[in-house]
Amino acid sequence: MTATSTDDRRGTLRGSGSPTASTPQNLMVFVLSMALFGLSNILLEVIPDVTIGPVDFSVSYFVFVPITLAALVSPFWVALGAPLGEIVFTDLLMGDFSGLAEVEGFIQMFLAIYIAGSVIRNPLSRIQVSIGALLVVAIDKFLSAVVDLAKVVVGVEEAEYVKGLPESVLLLEGIGFVVDILMSGVLFGIIPALWLVPALYRRIEPMLGLQPREPGRPVPGSAPGSAWFVLVAALAAIVSFFFAFFEAWDIEIGAVDGDFREQFGDGFLWISVAAVVVVLALATALFVGWRRKRSAR
């Protein structure tokens, strides 16, 4: 084998051009994101929420999981896998699946992670990583708040008022937004991500056969900075609003309402953990086999 062909074969890892990824590499990133975010949501199931008056102090999700992956590898495939992992491993397997209504959360989380991961051009920039972590929560929770307000305005849901506060729907949404930013965005987003991203930088990419992200290089799978993408993202958000009304209208197409955790207790969560392990192990085995075949050529 000539030196030229060897360099071509290893170009995705050693080349000086833009980092590229093949279909098996993208699928491995997708499965890794799906499994890790799903596993993190399983862990959240056993963490109790704290409610003080009308304010619910809870962690919506561990933001550091998807933002760390999106900062290091393809934001698109990470954004595609993460919300699907939540749906499959915590909603569907737990028997708490709303059917088509789940599309709302999927689209909103996809947009949040995709845009946030694309903002990070330099994984070693603490400012960019911090902005990315905050954007995940800000975009997702802003779209969710708009949906909740729209349901009240349209009249498909009644407003939840707090005694002593005159028609405080907007105020409650604002308080909830700030709490989510602090809990999910800062405490379980920025703080762990600022340690994890530099710790995994140049370590996880070679395992996937990818080039580490470098400042000035195009980011593979990042959101294009053009007007048409803004238009598509806005249309996707509007489409998510439509699916959000399914649950309010009691349209349960494809819904699974077994509530297995309530029937069998917290021990049933191990079923989801086992599913995560099986999916990740199978994907890893297939990916390792593909890399060996490519190296043998």
UniProtKB/TrEMBL annotation:
<feature type="transmembrane region" description="Helical">
    <location>
        <begin position="27"/>
        <end position="47"/>
    </location>
</feature>
<keyword id="KW-0812">Transmembrane</keyword>
<feature type="transmembrane region" description="Helical">
    <location>
        <begin position="59"/>
        <end position="80"/>
    </location>
</feature>
<feature type="transmembrane region" description="Helical">
    <location>
        <begin position="174"/>
        <end position="197"/>
    </location>
</feature>
<keyword id="KW-0472">Membrane</keyword>
<feature type="transmembrane region" description="Helical">
    <location>
        <begin position="269"/>
        <end position="290"/>
    </location>
</feature>
<dbReference type="InterPro" id="IPR058484">
    <property type="entry name" value="DUF8171"/>
</dbReference>
<keyword id="KW-0131">Cell cycle</keyword>
<feature type="transmembrane region" description="Helical">
    <location>
        <begin position="132"/>
        <end position="154"/>
    </location>
</feature>
<dbReference type="GO" id="GO:0051301">
    <property type="term" value="P:cell division"/>
</dbReference>
<keyword id="KW-1133">Transmembrane helix</keyword>
<feature type="region of interest" description="Disordered">
    <location>
        <begin position="1"/>
        <end position="20"/>
    </location>
</feature>
<feature type="transmembrane region" description="Helical">
    <location>
        <begin position="100"/>
        <end position="120"/>
    </location>
</feature>
<feature type="transmembrane region" description="Helical">
    <location>
        <begin position="227"/>
        <end position="249"/>
    </location>
</feature>
<feature type="domain" description="DUF8171">
    <location>
        <begin position="28"/>
        <end position="293"/>
    </location>
</feature>
<keyword id="KW-0132">Cell division</keyword>
<dbReference type="Pfam" id="PF26509">
    <property type="entry name" value="DUF8171"/>
</dbReference>
<protein>
    <submittedName>
        <fullName>Cell division protein FtsQ</fullName>
    </submittedName>
</protein>
<feature type="compositionally biased region" description="Basic and acidic residues">
    <location>
        <begin position="1"/>
        <end position="11"/>
    </location>
</feature>
